[in-house]
Write a structure and sequence with these properties.
single chain; 13% strand; 185 residues; alpha/beta; Nucleotidyltransferase family protein; six-stranded mixed β-sheet; 2 domains
Amino acid sequence: MTPYRPEFETALRVFARASKLLIAQGYEAPILVGGAAVEIFTASAIATGDFDVVTARQGAFEAALRSLGFVKPSGPGMATRGWVHPDLMLSFEVVSTRLLDGLADRKRVLVLDFGTEGTASIISVEDMIADRMGQFASGTAPEMRGQARAMLVLHTDIDRAYLAHRIIEETAGDYRIEDVEGDPL
């Protein structure tokens, strides 16, 4: 039993199976970022509708998704760039080939073990908080500071020095860790 909503856990397990297929081919495991990572770090308190994935092997990852029953919607009214599974309520999309443009420390990636189904690699909570603050700093996503704060409140064991560095880096020096800790906007 996990703290996640059932459909999200099912999607995580499917992601683990897709990851296992890539690893079996000798590739690095794809990494979940974005809303799916936020949902993991908030135990589904903040829910997502998609899985954003980082992998340098997009073709191999998409082939793995196809082998697991995913389809790429097409036709009128289908604007998604991602892949959907008929039984899941979430889509999967490769959003980058490098984890936060190479700024995130891959050694900090969290790995969730789903036994024989495989493992799911997740961006670190510190990097996810910093990413959300970077989006907040852009001025186009004011809700991202709240997501960053929720993750910070729930994860008291974070590497504060690394997080402080990453927030400064992602926000071009405009924000600090204290800006996440302060009262929500």
